[in-house]
Amino acid sequence: MSATTLTPESTQSAEKKLSELIKKAADITGTLKESDLSQHIPYGNGFLPEELFLHLQKTAPQKLAELIKKNIIEKPKKIPSPIPTKTSKDIDLELEVVIEKAMKKINATKEYDLCPYISYQNSRLHHFTYEQLKKKNPNDVRRLIQENVLDKTPQKLPRKYRSKSPKDTHPTANVINATENPPTSLEETIQAAMKRRTLNLKQESDICWYIPNEDGGPLFFSTYRSLKRKNPEKLKELIQTHVVSPKQ
Q1: Which of the residues 68, 97, 201, 239 has the least number of beta carbons within 10 Å of its own beta carbon?
Q2: Taking the model in full, what pTM does it have?
């Protein structure tokens, strides 16, 4: 059986083809050095050694061209996996974790014991409303528990509890006139809001009851904290407009 011999012409053609493939493969992989392509060609339990790559480049350009074509040029591109979305099971699980933490915090024996600590639509959350919300919008329940129990010192609300809503008439006492040296920083604005005696604000989170959100209800404390971190100027403006110097 006679060995296959390459003519100078065929060798030159193979080298030219290899050179073209190397350039194309380098563009695909972003490698700067030709021999770095060896790290993209499987060999045994690892990748093709650089020395062997250089050896094939000189002695067997056709073989190296086939390896580059198979493992780099024609290799299927990986399609990125879609970002997983939360399923209803995930949301329910998150809610259960929050409920468990909140119950432990107030030493509750049953889930409904959380209701007296949660303010909802300007009054104390009723267990029936809680149950309906849990079925229809578990994310809202999780957020309410987080903000009313886990994010602050929980306070049990009286049965006839009625909080101030943004729609209520703002007390006029201790209102700062916008033309009379209004607060310049967020901290000064918060302090000015807390000093409004007629609002009887006990803690900073109480400011939220006087700032309407997009739905018309009171601003969630989590949104308040987010604005305080990311957009303090916007929060300062909201507090100034709705709490410190509300329109009469």
Answers
A1: 97
A2: 0.36
Judge if 64 and 96 occupy the same domain. no
pLDDT tens column, 153-206: 888 887 766 655 444 444 444 555 444 556 678 899 998 888 876 667 778 888
- Domain identity same for 62 and 100: no
Torsion of CA 233, 171, 215, 191, to 10 degrees: 30
Residue 62 sits in the same domain as residue 113: no
Q: What is the pLDDT of residues 34-60, one digit of tens each?
A: 888 999 898 888 888 888 888 888 888
Kind and range of the H or E element at 159? none
* Residue 110 · residue 66 · CB < 8 Å: no
Q: Which of 44, 73, 102 is the last residue of a domain?
A: 73
**Residue whose C-alpha is closest to residue 211's, from 169, 170, 239:** 239
Q: Which is nearest to 121 in space by CA: 87, 71, 168?
A: 168
Per the structure, how many domains does the chain have? Answer: 3
The model's pLDDT over 84-119, given as tens digits with 9 standing for 90+, comes to 666 777 777 888 999 999 999 999 999 989 999 998
Q: DSSP secondary-structure letter at 77? A: P
Domain that holds residue 239: 186-244
Q: Residues near 95 by Cβ (< 8 Å), separated by ≥ 6? A: 134, 138, 139, 141, 142
Has residue 101 been placed in a domain?
Answer: yes
